[in-house]
TrEMBL record:
The keyword Repeat applies. Gene3D superfamilies: YVTN repeat-like/Quinoprotein amine dehydrogenase. Component of the ASTRA chromatin remodeling machinery complex. InterPro entries: WD40/YVTN_repeat-like_dom_sf, WD40_PAC1, WD40_repeat_CS, WD40_repeat_dom_sf, WD40_rpt. This is ASTRA-associated protein 1. Belongs to the WD repeat ASA1 family. WD repeats lie at residues 19-60, 397-412. Component of the ASTRA complex involved in chromatin remodeling.
Amino acid sequence: MTSSIQTSTRPPAQPLYILRGHRAQVHVVKFVRGNKRLLSGDADGFIIIWDIVSKRARVVWRAHGKAVLGLGAWGGDKILTHGRDGTLKVWQVREGEEDMFSNALPVEGGMGHWKEPWLLHSLHVNTLNFCAFSMCDAPVVPTSIQSTQEVLIAVPGTREGHVDIFSLPSERRLHSIPPAEEGKTGMVMAIRILYINTSLHVIVGTESGLTSVQKLNPHSDTWETTYISKPHTQPILSLGVISTTHPLATAAASDIRYLTSSADALITLNPVQKIDGNEPLKICQTRHSGQQALSVRSDGRIFATGGWDGRVRVYSAKSLREVAVLKWHKEGVYGIAFSAIGEGELVQEGMEGRMCGEGGDGDGGEGEVGETLGGMRGGGGIVGRKREGKALETHWLAAGSKDGKVSLWEVY
């Protein structure tokens, strides 16, 4: 295990666009549909589907009576929303039918005039601990006559420290996983469910600062703990999974790592199976407590966190070195999401990149941001220069804040 202390004196970049639509604090953001759309969910239960090309709202509705905890996409036309009202819902919103719905923004006032999309499923789940759901595709069964790809949903169980796994579209509960360690671990605060080769794994972060990985034994239908550690003194706020090979779905367990961020100032890099004792591979002392909403970019090279201090911090996934601090929001950042990038667009170690400040609010800036991200520069040319293609190829980073705004940054 290695440990490092991070400091940074680099000036912050400026966002490319600011999306102003929510009246309440934004809790979660997610890119969907090949980066053509951005979902954002707020503390009042509203969902906005943003058009990334025009930067305008396409669909607005109130999905939940309380705060939105998580968002997901299933196929090309289904959106999952997870609310503090104790429900996880699946909505059908086809791209060609977006004009059927209201795009009136919550920040503009008014109540009760938003048409809801077709509700396909609604699960009653435990939401007492503010932990968002996690999802993954189930293996395809060649003999199945089911036309819809099955997905697995992991949520905190009703018993402390437990995790429940549901299947959609059947809505059946398949598993209730007990804590990896007996004793008081506290509530489940963060979950990731994923297949590593053909084995189902669940990664958990708890209120006590403990993190664990459990693997399903398909023969006995029991869960085996492959890794457990307590690197944090405060609750774990977020998890992110990285593969040292590509893609994640075909990687071996020895090639998979995962990150944890916490209410303390630590970020840790962990294996999914014990290597040399139950200790993280790396620990980064960031000196910034309350980094949450950790998001790993699809190429596995960088990740970002949203901070209670309003900063978005970008790190190298290999070294855990801080490579950029993005400062615009005056209040805490609760939701972070990268747009997906293709395999041919992988960032090369040490290559020059840029962050642009342009458009929306006339924000722009210059300054050095570190080895991985290179530089940043203002001005320049998305609008009017192959606008749609450029917008969809841009390496976006979206940040949703307590101030009700979503900032869009370009990160290479």
